[in-house]
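User: I'm writing a short report section on ligand binding and want a predicted complex to refer to. Could you take this sequence and arginine and write out the structure as tokens? A short remark afterwards would be nice.
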Amino acid sequence: MEQRISRALQTAGAADAPALVVPSGRPEFGDYQANGCMAAAKKMKTNPVEFAKAVLEKLDLSDLAEKVEIKGPGFINIFLKREWLDDQLGSMKADEKLSVSQPETPETVVVDYSGPNLAKEMHVGHLRSTIIGDALARTLQFIGYKVIRQNHVGDWGTQFGMLAAFLALQYSIKQTENGLFFEAVSHIKDLDGYYKLANEWFKSSEENQQKSRDFVVRLQSGDPEIVPYWKEFCNLSLSHARTIYGRLGVLLGKNDVRGESLYNDYLPQVVKTLDEKGLLKESEGAKGVFLNEFKNKDGDPFFMIVQKSDGGYLYATTDLAAIWFRCGKGKEDGTVDWTAGRVLYVTDSRQAQHFAQVFTVAKKAGFADRTWLGHLAQASQGHPAPVQEAKTTGGTPVARLDETSKPQVSLEHVPFGMMLGTDGRPFKTREGGTVKLMDLLDEAESRAGALVKEKNPDLSEDKVKDIAHKVGIGALKYADLSQNRTSDYVFSWDKMLSLEGNTAPYMQYAYARIQSIFRKQDETSPACQGGDDADNGAIHVSEPAERALAVKLLQFPETVESVAEACMPNILCAYLYELAGAFMSFYENCPVLKSEGAVRASRLALCRLTAMVIQQGLALLGIETLEQM
Ligand code: ARG
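Assistant: Sure. The structure tokens for the complex follow:
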């Protein structure tokens, strides 16, 4: 409708005017309304109602609408055809992708998320990136993009020299035939405790500090005697992270880890390329790039350092290397078999400046040119690739491209705000310490478990555990994902576990309730068991509540697309909440099991489709459903 009405606006004389189609607020205004005529008419200095009439003349919606009319100052109200709704619902229900269609040329999207520093245990500060990134990756994948998950873990730097030195020198560990350090593994159960011990050891004597520094130097030069200790430490830390991912149901595996250290070989090349492009300057012994686009505190161009005076590289240098790698270098080198068309960086908003600067330098240096994608070849065939801009998704563009630049891979920072306690301050333990992620997950499950037992004391221990896990973890994720990620949000156990409001338990309950209809239906008409015509009846929408539910259901594909485009999972949560609401009022107003024949079959089919959409929607968010709660 958006496309067709926009085209009609154009034909009627308004160039570049969007149709602005939105769901209507009230049934008497139809199912949808297009609000674009008013603005277009204003621009053209003509009467909006007259203009809307001219648009209607150019518009043919007869295949899907039974009535299109002009109301008020120039709104176009659209009343969808019943048969069209029925048809659409039928094909949606028969499609495992629920009518979400794959883009014509699905590009490769890299989602860079979680990325903890391996020196310490994962804490609550890693939660948002991990769940938001995972939901986006799942959604993009479902739509049909080729998704590359990248866990850009911090595994390099002086800290790691110390940690590896401590491992090598304090524990008498031998390298076994298969390269494992069994003794160490059994010693290090508590990563933070280990870090503390190592730090104490380091600080306790000048000798230890010297040993540790020697270790760093040897590690950095790739000394084969030292490297295994560092590797072993990283493996220990990664297995801790994997335990967390497993409990959270986050799809980040071993192969998705591409830590900072893996870009080491590229760093000298990054600096060299910047130099070759005439971008590299020196200031106080350090090498970097002056950026007119950003000012330092004196109002002068910001100097982004890529190599310190002692020769060391920085976080930004590694990110430049990673961009280069992802946008084609990695494929050229034969390390990977993909090239990104879009890269999403899911980190907290404090890194916004960092990414804005890195993206700007990357563009200047040509690290994110689409050349590798073959888009230039395409462009020469008369299909110019869209010129993308480096941007902060959901925020303001940070670096526009000029007309002459090459098409760029879309580099997007996906920022999020902080998690606050109910006191409005950053979320901490009661003692004011950092909350370990493992502890947070334990608490989510035990709180959910207590609620389950209270409501249902007869459930078996196993059953309670299973429900507590799905509901507890689901609630934790949903509470985060349902917020507009760009702002801070207040983390409240009671609110997130509530069965009322826009929460995971509410959504899971809505799903379980629909499942119970099918269980009852099996009992009342055993002949239908196994589903024959149980829910396979054709859908015929007639009652207003059915119609409202139908229209909501059909909004699933466009909702999923907006989530992927804006990187905003909260759009999906808001949709699911509205869908559950539409279902509840349908269920109150339209008897399902008590109705008969075709009506019963149609209503059962609507129930089934609603359950499918809720289940799929929650799955895109990484949340499980339950048959019974
Ligand atoms: N390790 C980083 C941190 O803990 C996050 C990595 C984000 N990704 C990136 N390419 N810089 O803040």
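A remark for your report: Residues 2-80 form a domain with the Gyrase A; domain 2 fold (CATH 3.30.1360.70). The longest helix spans residues 597-620.
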